[in-house]
Amino acid sequence: MSSPSLTKAYRPEEHEPRIWQKWVRHRxxxxxxxxxxxxxxxxxxxxxxxxxxxxxxxxxxxxxxxLQDVLARVHRMKGYETLWMPGTDHAGIATQxxxxxxxxxxxxxxxxxFPRNExxxxxxxxxxxxxxxxxxQLKALGCSCDWDRQRFTMDxxxxxxxxxxxxxxxxxxxxxxxxxxxxxxxVTQTALADDEVEMTEVQGSFYYLRYxxxxxxxxxxxxxxxQEVTWSELxxxxxxxxxxxxxxxxxxxxxxxxxxxxxxxxxxxxxxxxDPRAPALRGLMVQLPIIGRIIPIVTDDYVVMPARxxxxxEREPDDQAPDPKAHFATGFxxxxxxxxxxxxxxxxxxNLEAINVMAPDASISESHGWDRAARNEGxxxxxxxxxxxxxxLVIKEFQVRALLEGIKPYTHSVGHSYRSHAAIEPYLSDQxxxxxxxxxxxxxxxxxxxxxxxxxxxxxxxxxxxxxxxPSDGSLTFYPARYAKTYESWHDNLRDWCIxxxxxxxxxxxxxxxxxxxxxxxxxxxxxxxxxxGVPVKFQFLDDAQHExxxxxxxxxxxxxxxxxxVQVCIAPNDQNIEQRFIDNGFxxxxxxxxxxxxxxLWPLSTLxxxxxxxxxxxxxxxxxxxxxxxxxxxxxxxxxxKNFIGKGDDAADQLVERLLHLRDFARTDNGTSPxxxxxxxxxxxxxxxxxxxxxxxxxxIATATDLVCAVxxxxxxxxxxxxxxxxxxxxxxxxHNFVNTAGLLAAFNPTNVLxxxxxxxxxxxxxMVMFNRFFLDDSAGSPPFRDVFIHAMIQDxxxxxxxxxxxxxxxxxxxxxxxxxxxxxxxxxxxxxxxxDVRMPVERDPQSNRNTSPKFDIGRNFCNKLWNAARFALxxxxxxxxxxxxxxxxxxxxxSLADRWMLARVAQTLREVDAALASYQFSTYAxxxxxxxxxxxxxxxxxxxxxxxxESAAQQACLRATLDSILRMLxxxxxxxxxxxxxxVSTLRTAPITALDLGETVEDAVLCTSAxxxxxxxxxxxxxxxxxxxxxxxxxxxxxxxxxxxxxPKRRVTLHLDSSLAADFTSAASLLEVLAGLxxxxxxxxxxxxxxxxxxxxxxxxxxxxxxxDTAAEHERLTKQRVDxxxxxxxxxxxxxxxxxxxxxxxxxxEQTRAQLARAQADLDAVLQSLExxx
Length: 1176
Description:
The chain is of the alpha+beta class.
């Protein structure tokens, strides 16, 4: 039988698509919750951080998903029931913004030119395009996700989870609506949460504006009635330095501000009560120039006093001032509650009016809270101006009136939108909030951390719960541990989360509202208007509505002001059929959508089937006992009765039945089978008998059952062409009719094992997932959604900048896959990833493709080529002497040659180190271990060592095959395509097994990705062989250096004159030493012809027959260089040992190791000096 063979060169483009299809055919990545729940399999779960559907993936995604795939593949090979859940995120603001820009550029239209449904449909089309592109990229990368379970944050399954979560939080009072100051993005015109704001240093200015002082007007409605205050009056009141101004001139106070345009909304001027000027100003007011508004002067401890008052002498700036703003402060603070968060809080303390003077686009407006005409105020010249233009105009008008005292440059941090990058505007607005400051959310998120990753302050504020009631406290660990501090400190200063967004793309807020000026009563308690336990359909029939709807819609809230009562109704997710009834009775749904991060926070729940997690599991063999193997997913729906299922003709249910019958009875897939199987089951019987339950077959049983579950098994994921209905997307068809394929997932796979993500979304995403998972899964405190959080490095360009489109330094992963192959990219990224530093990837422009690339990826390509060539050599030599009947007798490693025992020991050593590295997420260590094992140990040493003997030794062939097989398995998680391609050949070989090395059973047509992870017993770890071979390797390396320095031809055989004291050490390995060092003989005799001396282990050895004569000058130069190097080593080691801090405090074994190194270096130095003396 001929040996298996590989092509001369590895061409990724030829193998990767073929290998991917092979994995798909074998359903290699499918996870089955039944094996966890009923067969005792250990689950391993990763949920993909869902990429935004705004654009194709970048290198950061490639890194993140390569790391996840490593973990998923390792654990799948180790026998875990592995679920890697894929999906994408709708990315509300980002996606809508991209589509708006595209439509504006292509059609000249804005979003508001379209009906809402039509524009949302356009975004959906865009989403479909990029979702498919992202999916194709992930598959090209080799991501071993369970693709049949792919989710989208707005698909019907996730949407139900969002509705249920909102409903429960609303019911618990943890979601509320309030008018507050929010972070407003004037470009996208939506509110942002605090963690969606990026602080950026900007070069701004402090503007010093003079506000005239006035006496309180006798008629508050007529500002003109106010009398000016003169400097003489202020002097009489004891105002410091007032006598420095003309007595009869109007007096003023000077405010300092970075935003003069907001003065239009000022409602007070504040100063610190400790300010010496405060007593003199008591009872006076300020009049806003141009606007004319009279506003009070209040005192508040928040106000920063100036570092130097105007009447104080000049002095050197005090850098130790308690607040840096003191050097810019005047002591007078303009208070604009509607446009500054600190002013808003100050305004609440003093019951000040909040006047919003801006439109949503941040232009000055008299229609969004400032009723200028009704207030009889000036300022019409500012209306309609952008905030930038308004600022310029305010400065100009103050300057004209001699009220601009000065301008000072000032560098400060300004919040910017993380999406539009526009400066955010503090904006007074009605928004929906989640009360994340509540202990049920924030407290449980803090308690999820282990005690050793928490601070004392956090433990004091949020102590651990009772272990009996909250066993999941402390079960969430960060890697690296330092990121636990980021997570924890975020919660320390947490404000309630603004979750409403003024967008069209997203989950529309499920609250219906109506208002009335009529009094609302409940009959039993006529005064109850603040909280109503039911749902009014019509206000006048509230009692009837409560009785009618109390069981289907469980919560309503009424809020009343002096004029109207507003009723807010949150409808439960299973009650959508009554939404129209609310609309018919005057209720309207809130037009806003939920923050994207709300649905993302539910990702560990929604993707696994919550809240429908009580659905029973139906197995493929229950649907079709004969042809169940090709059913790759099962979708379920509770239908209750047969009448509910079939509908009433021409409705949605009836259309579904038509299509299911046609698909089952007439449609066929490419291989001639029916694309679906579907059956009905009794849900109570399913819960009782589980996978032993058989479907209902009797028409009478189906017709009379009241707990029917319809189960549909799919045999294809591709659209099915049908004559009457056209192409049918089976997944979309079933999901749109509320079928789910999530039965058993939550019970089997939550909590997940690890979240692999980047540090910038610890607050945006990680924190909120922990809150929601713990809140929704248990009455007290459920489990965190994952046990570990691994924060990986960020990818930057060669200059340390983040890769981005705007900088033109991004690299498309598909470009690298096309030029280098997926495995080369994966290996390079994983090898470069550390837990301490970001990854710098120098970017170059490829002149041929005109696309960005990086020379760093050559590392991975060279590694893959090395693996391929090594496998080609091994396979060419793997012919047994009696190939028709290879022995099955296990081979004892102790009976093998030194090279074989050493190689197997290195496999065992590396296997242990790889397992340890992956357990602590040391991915670069894993990659480097495999690099050394393959390149250095296997290729450079082992294959060279066995070349002369491999074809004559069946035992050595068995060792070679086992070693190559083990390396392929250990490398597979990082380079899956090339290892699978090689394994196709290796798996056909039949050689004797190696005792103590378990590679699992060999299965016909097996795929490597589901084959067993190697297991090595202690017997394989022959430390004596490792020590002996390593010593031999040191000697060979030394001999090779001498040969190289003397330009000895590689094929020339030289003689080694071995010191008699070393002869015994290498006698048993003499033939191996001759092969590796290029020797013709080894002798203890002194050389009789010209020879070159060299040192090894402090002894002088010689090589002869290097050439016809020895170049004495070259040898003297070599020995002199060696002497210099050894002298440096001796000095460094001596200094280290003479340092008490090392000798007394370092571990004893390290000190002893250093002493041994010193002794060896000193012996080598002595030998070199002797050789130099003889040459002289």
